[in-house]
Write a structure and sequence with these properties.
By secondary structure, the chain is an alpha/beta fold. The chain is built from 11 helices and 21 strands. It has 2 domains: 237 residues, 3-Layer(bba) Sandwich (FAD/NAD(P)-binding domain); 120 residues, D-Amino Acid Oxidase, Chain A, domain 2, CATH 3.30.9.10. Strand 15 and strand 16 form a beta hairpin. Helix 8 packs antiparallel against helix 9. It is globular.
Length: 410
């Protein structure tokens, strides 16, 4: 029986939250794309697969609009109007010093939107279905990729994909990166992120809370309706104990940290947990291969910048490849892919290390450090220009932005 051969300009390994936007962006630039994903699309959008909610910066929202994804997210986007950053202890009073970001200080746009990852995947899949230049091959796994005059991938079912360039968007444990011999550096934080959804009595008014506790940050992220997503960071041993609690005891531990500012509250639905670590790829580019998203970098979820960092990769990679194609260049050549690497490496490394430093600074109960960080929060809160700069940076509007993040076509 003859095996299937798919031919396209670009192969993307991984059909997740980095791979699908990259496919849409490249297709809008006129390139044909084959996306191969090991996971069944129906599994990836199931309610039990991923309980996380992503904070999508306003620049990333511009990209979603340009890629015609926003229309599929109607009713699923919760605006982030304010962010409050504070310090405290479990079952103790919080610091009187805090940092408050108000979106009206920098314009009419919200600071971003909270979107459930499940609904993001559903919207991206719908946009993929509408794009005639994107072929999604799933569920199917890439067994190997050979790099020569083309990137030639062999799939689990024996099919072959031939493309001028391959992008690895297959996550932090990227088999494509590992097979290419690209090394990583990083370390484990000794922390686990516990994720669950909370229903509460009073409206949240679009206010996100980043509450720093000795075990790690406790983020309260507003969702559509009177709901919030918790990203609750604890040391591994404490997290294991908390996750083993029955529903009533788990709710008591949650309320001890959540407080009563939103009235009565209770956890609903499943609990998820994720070990937290820093991981940075030493290279993003090889001949005919480039890394995007978590395959290139995985950072601490403090401040919720991981997805936006990956989408800055997506926007930059698409711009570099499309411009090279228009100039008649070989889009898989190393000099082309290194342009993307140079564009993204400094931003990725610097933000990764900043998140690492913030987590180390705040995830402790050392008296002098607690005093210094609380004073620092209070001082920045009083400095309008600094406060507005941090808001623009969190919104993704600082630095050399790709066109998609400015809301422009490539």
């Amino acid at each position: 029986m003859e095996k299937t051969v798919y031919e396209s300009d670009v192969l993307i390994v991984g059909g997740g939250l980095a791979g699908m936007p990259l496919a849409l962006a490249l297709a809008q630039g006129g390139l044909s794309v084959t996306v191969v994903d090991a996971l069944d699309p129906a599994t990836a959008t199931g309610a039990g697969f991923d309980g996380r909610v992503s904070a999508v910066a306003f620049s990333s929202c511009r990209m979603l609009k340009r890629l015609d994804v926003i229309k599929h997210l109607a009713g699923q986007m919760q605006p982030i109007n304010d962010i409050v950053v504070s310090d405290g202890r479990v079952r103790g009073p919080g610091s009187s010093l805090f940092l408050h970001f108000d979106h009206t200080e920098i314009g009419d746009e919200p600071l971003g939107h909270l979107i459930e990852n499940r609904h993001m995947r559903i919207a991206l899949q719908k946009a993929i279905e509408e794009s005639p230049k994107v072929r999604l091959v799933a569920p199917n796994a890439v067994k190997s990729v050979a790099y020569g005059a083309q990137a030639v991938a062999t799939l689990a079912d024996g099919a072959t994909v031939k493309a001028r360039v391959c992008f690895a968007a297959d996550g932090r444990g990227s088999p494509t990166r590992i097979a290419a011999g690209i090394k990583t550096i990083g370390w484990d934080y000794g922390q686990t992120g516990i994720v669950t959804t909370v229903e509460h009595e009073r409206p949240h008014e679009g206010v996100a809370q980043e509450y720093f506790l000795p075990g790690g940050p406790f983020a309260i992220l507003p969702m559509v309706g009177n709901r919030a997503s918790l990203v609750w960071t604890e040391r591994h041993d404490a997290a294991k104990t908390i996750l083993a609690l029955d529903d009533a005891a788990f709710a008591d531990e949650m309320r001890a940290r959540f407080g009563d500012y939103l009235g009565d509250c209770r956890p609903v639905g499943p609990r998820w947990s994720y070990p937290l670590s820093l991981q940075l790829a030493r290279d993003y580019a090889r001949p005919r291969l480039a890394l995007v998203g978590d395959a290139a970098h995985a950072i601490h979820p403090i401040a919720g910048q991981g997805l936006n960092l990956g989408w800055r990769d997506v926007a930059a990679a698409a711009e570099v490849i499309i411009e090279a194609a228009r100039l008649g260049q070989d889009i898989g050549a190393l000099d082309v892919l290194e342009r993307y690497q140079r564009w993204r490496r400094f931003d990725n490394v610097s933000l990764s290390l900043l998140m690492d430093g913030l987590n180390r600074l705040f995830s402790n109960d050392i008296g002098p450090l607690r005093l210094a960080r609380d004073v620092g929060l209070g001082v920045v809160n009083l400095m309008g220009p600094a406060r507005r700069f941090f808001m623009r940076h969190a919104g993704g509007s600082v630095g050399d932005l790709p066109r998609l993040l400015r809301g422009e076509a490539i």
